[in-house]
Structures are given as structure tokens and as C-alpha cells.
Amino acid sequence: MQKEHTTRRRWRRVWLTSVAVLLVLGVVEGLARLSGLAPPVANRTGWVLDDPRFPYRPPASTVAIERSIADDYEIPHNYNAVGFRDEEHPREKPAGVFRILGLGDRFTEGSGAAYADTYLRRLELFLNARPGEHPRVEVLKCGLPGYFAESERLLLQNLGLAYAPDLVVVGFVVDDVLLSELGLEAVRVSRLGYLTPRHGAALGKWGLWWYRQSHLARIVLRLYLDTWVKPLSDEQRAELNFPGEAHRGGWRELFAQYEAMLASIRKQGARMVVLHIPARAPSAEDAYPARQMAEWCTGRGVVFADALPALLEAQRSRRVYWSAGRCCTAEGYAVIARVLEEALTARALVR
Fold it and tell me: What is the pTM of this model?
């Protein structure tokens, strides 16, 4: 009888301790949410799939919701039958159509804006609204978050060229240099089907789940990642804005991938354009990466378009990047589309 009573007391203690711990954790979680100290989580609900031809893509004919708490927007992303944020396109190019293939990352996909406001969709409308006789222009919008030179090359060679583009526009952001240093392992698909940066994979399946669900867990796990795993930092990104030996390996790898893309594009009789977009809210310091890319393009007869000057001018009177700084507003994408349209028409790259 005494033994049974002791066991009950022990279990009661365990139960009360568990309830107390849960209450404390609940209070701390609430404080963490109110404080806003937790790092932002990926602002997209949806999932991606591994693809044998290139790193990953969204599932065909699905919808993902892009949300931003900081900027208070919620935007649907409708993916076509191939897995891109675009309308449907037949594989065989229709007669009398001039095709442009757009490659790039979140900016090329149009993160932060409705589909109608993305720069590739606006470009398509601008070019088809030109006066006079010209072929109908069709823009294949193949931007995906986390894509960079190597993944874009794989997408181009294993799918994009099958659509017989006349012109290929590659969106370049300075983050592509850092990702080129890491290779295809820089961004992975987690077991839960979410895009995960290389350092995030160190958390494992359940660590990632807790990271997404709990602000308190996000603070603790981010401290762990910053201390032991050391993800890409703003300091590393800043190094790319100045001459020096930092990240030379990344530049070499990026240019090697661009060389391979250029060879494939020219073999098909098409032309290549590189478009520079600042990876964060535009600054005069972004000019150095633009000069590096312009030099490479000039030496190979590739047209280079730089959105930086126009964005710097535009942000003096309107908001061109969201406050989080990782993607453009609709106004910013309109500026980029005009820069690209002017570059293509001035050089008679579109008929």
C-alpha cells in the first residue's frame, strides 16, 4: 500500500512538473513572438520536388502562397504544367513567334509581386505593345528561388533549349557568386519538401519542423547555426562589393557556368543577355559586381543590361524593394522591365 502511494506521488510530481514546463515554454514562446527577435522563416507555403534534370522545381499545376509578415502581403504563385510561374507554352514554337527564355532566381520568378507585375511578364507586354509590324513575342518565365549559375545551366540544357528560344535572358544577382562557391549543395530540398539552405540541413527533419513552427526554437536554433555551422553572412556578401581576392573561386565558377551556357545558346543559333539586379535594396556599392559582369559580357559579345542605375534613381521617389530587402515591389519590377526592354530594342535583339 505504501509502495502504491509512493508511485502515485511520483507520477503526480512528474505530471505537475511537465505541466509547469509546458506553461513556462508557452509563456516564453509568447514573449518570443511579441519581441520579434526570431529570424524570419521562409515566406512561402508550398513545396518543391527533386528533378532528375535539374536541382528542383515546384510540382506541376499547383499554387503556393507567398507571405510576408514584415511587409503584410500574401501573394499566390500559380505554377504551370512544367512547374514554373507562367502560362502554358507548347514545346514546339508556333510559327511567327519570337521566343525569349528567362532564367534566374527569386527576382526572375517575381517574388513579392503578383504575376502580372513580374518583370518578365511586363517585358512580354511591353514588347508586344510596340507599334508597327513584328512577330508576337513569347517570354518563358523560368525563374526559381535559390537558383544560380549552375542550376540555371542545367535547366537551360535539359529543358529550356527544347523550347527553341531565340534569346536567353539570365538574371544575375551577386549572391550567385557565393552560391557558386558552394555548388548545388548550397540549396537542398528537405525531407518535408521545403527549400533549405546548406546550413539548414544540419538541423535535420525535426529541427527544421520546429524551426518553422516555433519562434523560441528559431532563436535557439539560429544561435546554434551561427555559432557552429556558420551560414553565409552579410559580411561575406559585403566583400563582393569591393575588389580583392575574396570569393575569386566563386567568380571563376560562375563564369565557367556562364561560358557553358553561352556555348549551348550559340550552338542553337540564339543570343544571350545578362541582366544585373541588386540582391538587396540598391546601393552604390552594388556597382562593383555589375562592372565585373559587364567586363565578362563585353569580352564575349554578350549583351549586358544593368538595372542598378535606374533602381537607384527610382528609389528616391518610390519604394522599389520591400522593407525586408530580399525582393522587389511591383514598382521595382516595372523599372527592371523597362531597363531590359530598352536594352533589347536598342540593340535590335528582338524583331
Answer: 0.82
